[in-house]
Amino acid sequence: MPGYPLRMRGAALILVLWLVAALSLTVLAGVRSVRQHNQHGSVDLERLRVEPVLDAARQLAVQALIADPARSRGYGIWHMQLDAWDVQLQVIPSVGLIDVNVASDALLTTFLQRVGSLSADQAAIMAARIHDYIDPDDTPSGVGGAEAAQYRAAGWPVLPRNGALADLTELRMVLGMTPELYDIISPYLGLNGQQHLVLDATPPALIDALTGQPGLGERIYSTPPEMRAAWSQSDSLAQLFGAAATTGGMVKVIASVRSDEGRWWEREAWMDLNPRPDTLTPWTTISLEATHRMPTPPSQGQP
Asked: Which of 56, 75, 149, 165 has its CA 20 to 30 A from that of 273?
């Protein structure tokens, strides 16, 4: 650069190098943003491809349950081949899940302790608060129970319902219920009007968790159905399980499938198998979750 002092030429060179570096970082950031955008777009397209497959498998499963009502009374894992898709379905009758509206004290506290990972004292307190949220009176029950006065004192944003829950997500409003605890226990919740679980309808993983005996659920399901009633009458299970006949016709159906890209996708629905005059199908979809990715393959017996 003739006519410029050496010092100025050096400074200009450094400036140019800084500009090149800055432009390179900008280009790299743009490339990364485009790549991420393309990845998100690819995942969204993949969701659109698998969702009709999951819905078709769920509806075929419900048709099979209606055609053979005996199948709707027990827990089951099915595999269904739809073209190139191998869909796994979990069918969980509502009587195999916990109804906090009516669950016995023993079932609810054991559930909160062994599934929710609460201490015995914490489980007893949370069980009392769940009861107080639902029961019609304003008198706290048990140790750590809470009614309207305790909710106000704690600055809680809501007051007890004093009535049965029709929407299980409202359980998040109970004093002391954390998002983390709700996320852990919510897959095991249902509405069935029963104080105890029906053993044949309970997922093996829930049997294992409630009893503290890993593998017990699979051992129970490996025995002939006519012999399973004896399990529920044993001393260790009698407070949790009953052999009562199932009622209703509500089932949770969880469909999952692996895409060509290796990602697992899942969709969950609550279905009422009883016909209703106001619906166009022989069943009613009570709730339908959005299709979402699963971090790992579906576990056997895990709702």
From this structure: 165
Residue 257 buriedness (CB in 10 A; 0-12 / 13-18 / 19+): buried
Beta-carbon count within 10 A of 104 CB: 15
Q: What is the pLDDT of residues 120-164, one digit of tens each?
A: 999 999 999 999 999 999 999 988 999 999 999 999 999 999 999
In this structure, are residues 198 and 225 in contact, taking their beta carbons and an 8 Å threshold?
Answer: no
Tens digits of residue pLDDT in 66-90: 999 888 889 999 999 999 999 999 9
Amino acid identity for residue 212 in this structure: G
Distance between CA atoms of 42 and 90, rounded to whole angstroms? Answer: 27
The CATH classification number of 101-186 equals 1.10.40.60
Question: Could you state, in order of their start, the residue ranges of all structural domains in the chain?
Answer: 51-97+190-303, 101-186
AA identity, residue 79: H
Q: Which two tokens stand for residue 289?
A: 């979750």
Please enumerate, as own/partner, the contacts of 70-76 that have beta carbons within 8 Å and a separation of 24 or more.
Answer: 72/246, 72/249, 72/251, 72/273, 73/198, 73/200, 73/201, 73/246, 74/200, 74/201, 74/225, 75/200, 75/201, 75/202, 75/203, 75/204, 75/221, 75/301
Q: Are 70 and 91 in contact (CB under 8 A)?
A: no
Three-class SS state of 80: strand
Tell me the C-alpha distance between 129 and 145, whole Å: 5
User: Does residue 120 sit in helix, strand or coil?
Assistant: helix
pTM here is: 0.81
Tokens of 104: 């016995």
For the chain, how long is the longest CA-to-CA vector? 102
133 token code pair: 């949220």
